[in-house]
Design a protein that fits this description.
It contains 14 helices and eight strands. β5 and β6 form a beta hairpin. It is of the alpha/beta class. The protein has two domains: about 300 residues, Thiamin diphosphate (ThDP)-binding fold, Pyr/PP domains (Rossmann fold, 3-Layer(aba) Sandwich), CATH 3.40.50; about 50 residues, no CATH class. The N and C termini lie far apart (about 100 Å). The strands form two sheets. Strands 2-1-3-4-8-7 form a six-stranded parallel sheet, with helices on both faces. α3 packs across α12. Its cofactor is thiamine diphosphate. Its EC number is 1.2.4.4. It catalyses: N(6)-[(R)-lipoyl]-L-lysyl-[protein] + 3-methyl-2-oxobutanoate + H(+) = N(6)-[(R)-S(8)-2-methylpropanoyldihydrolipoyl]-L-lysyl-[protein] + CO2. Belongs to the BCKDHA family.
Amino acid sequence: MIRAVRTSVPTTRRAFASRRLLSSSVPRFSADQHGHLPTTQSPITPHLEFFNSVAGEGKTIPTYRVIDGAGNPLEGARVPELDEALARKMYEEMTKLPILDNILYNVQRQGKIAFYMTCYGEEATIIGSAAALAPDDEVLGQYREMGVLLWRGFSYDSVMNQCFGTHEDIATKGKQMPVHFGSRELHFHTISSPLATQIPQAAGVGYALKRDPLRRGKNCAVVYFGEGAASEGDFHAGMLLASTIPSPTLFICRNNGFAISTPASEQYHGDGIASRGPGYGVHTIRVDGNDILAVYNAVREARRRCIEEGRAVLVEAMTYRVGHHSTSDDSFAYRPRQEVENRKRLDNPLARFRMFLEARGWWSAEEEDAFKARVKGEVMQALKRAEELPKPPVEEMFNDVYAGEEPWNIKEQKEELKRLLKKYGSAYEPWRTELRKHKGEGKEFV
């Protein structure tokens, strides 16, 4: 009989070997000695090592900045080659946003519109990125990207018609909530309320552009979202699709610190949203979202890579949501008022860029006052006009629900409404009042 002989390493030797294996953080052998895992570029190592930093050695991802809080260029920073006209337009478009936000926020509080969302504090991220894109790049926004539309020529009348749901609202035809803008002409896909649904859709749009011989190598899809939306599965689905198919899709994350009442510290444990980019094999950059020149440089370079390589790029813009999440939110219930006031004073994106312009003689206090007064007058004129316009015809509610031939259920619902209007439309005062708000008062429908 042959007996198996069991050999053992003394306890002290085993413990020493174990400690040496686990504590070694620097490889003692070169990758060439052990080669690479088959069909990969991953070098083989005999050392048990864990890592938790994209940048290596526990370092966090840096934030790209061009000008400081006083509008002065940082040493070594490359200031973009802006002429006076472009620089002034960027500042003017930034300035329009808080004027519109102030007016429409108050209009909602007066009960004239149902809902509104401001972009206080995020003006540099929105306008800086809009200026870096081509006017025919396909944009899929979340709900704070009105500035992208304004940059492309969206009128104040169009803003008001959408928010009031008038019959001149071409994109949503009075069927969507306020601030859910869209414009086929300006290549801006209509905003939808469900969180993050635009992210995988953008990857599909990017793939469609890649397949179009007339737009391949010329345009990209651009999708905006917040750091809270990046917690949804749609973010990962969109990133995976755009990186593996691949497609020219530019992901722009507005990391404004809060997902409604949830702070970013509770949204993720890792190094922000930028740390997720390398996991999908995409070029990634983190940028100071309150520095419009840094945003402009970063997005312009991101777009170039996106189109030339035909694959996804991720930009994380670090900013701060100064306003409430929406008119349905009171942010002072979950953050100190003083914190907000401090950010307004210490890191104001408009003030930073204004000081940059004034240092070059491209802007002045007199021009500031005159411009704000003119914009406010034009916005108020558009507001008053929209208040007087009727809502779309009653029959419009059944149009564009489905593409192609009108299905049986829509036809059935339409006939049912006709029957009810004939019976109660003139006899029931609440219905008469409501019908008077619509173009044609429903008479042509009946």
